[in-house]
Amino acid sequence: MITDISVVIPTYNRIDTLRHVIPALLRQDMPSDRYEILVADSNSNDGTAEYLAEIAERDDRVRHLPGPYTGRAGARNAGIRAARGEVVLFTDADILASADLLSRHWAHHKDRERVAVVGMELQVGSFEDYHRQSRDTSVRRPLHPSTRKRLSWLYFLTGNASVRRADLEAVGAFDESFTGYGHEDLELGYRLQAAGVTILYEPEAVNYHWHPVGYDEQKGRMELAGRSTVRFYNKHHDLRVQMNLGMTPVSLWLHTLLAKAPGVYGTLERAGRRDGAKNTWPHIARQIVYQYHYVSGIKRALASTKNQGAE
Description:
Elements: E1 3-11, H1 15-26, E2 35-41, H2 48-58, E3 62-66, H3 72-82, E4 85-90, E5 95-97, H4 101-109, E6 115-123, H5 127-135, E7 161-164, H6 165-171, H7 184-194, E8 198-209, H8 215-236, H9 239-244, H10 249-259, H11 262-272, H12 281-310
Parallel strand pairs: 1-2, 1-4, 2-3, 6-8
Antiparallel strand pairs: 4-7, 5-8, 6-7
Helix pairs in contact: 8-12, 10-12, 11-12
């Protein structure tokens, strides 16, 4: 049966947050027969299958799609293939939806074609912080001002984004060669925009990303994102990709300078580990360290590409 929206959620061992994510999506103000929830599960072993089976027994809007997916791109593509909705809305297993999330997205799609919609994704540090931000808009820190109407592919972030299924299929959906962290969503946004799909911003379509990332985890993520940047550029060879994603001669040069000054890096590393609540220096140090690891990933991927070409 064709419906309006298919919500696609990739997951792997996120049962703790999924227990809050699924109920929030089942409480939408959109008519219950107009949407479905597809959980593309990379064969979790934390009780996800049992939990979803229990939910699906009571509510057939929820469908479990287990599989040996090698990354978020592959999991989301499985959701797209299984979707019955005209529109596919992407979110994640650690993102809590506001009650009108789906209806806000659908309002843009129902009378228009060739558009993608990106909503407001807010970062929350705890379940209590989620409740605080959902009640008090003054404490929110959105990425974009509410006056913004359109976005470039650089902000096509699939924690809160929707696209017509036909448009996704027309551009080949997600590139499953992006198996590490980062940029599989931006690269899809790049292709959608190149194909004539306009990316709109809807600040009233709000959800809450509940995944505080530790310092060391974020350093690792940044290095993986750097590797994905090179994959992105190698696929499209577009100067805009280089400039927007920081793959520039200046960034590479600055990284080299810092690599030759281990004492300076060590100072930044130690400062970045301190609590930055009382002053801005730890925050600045963290950002420099994160950027260092991001460019480290770029350099390693460039070296790997060069070595492969020499073989």
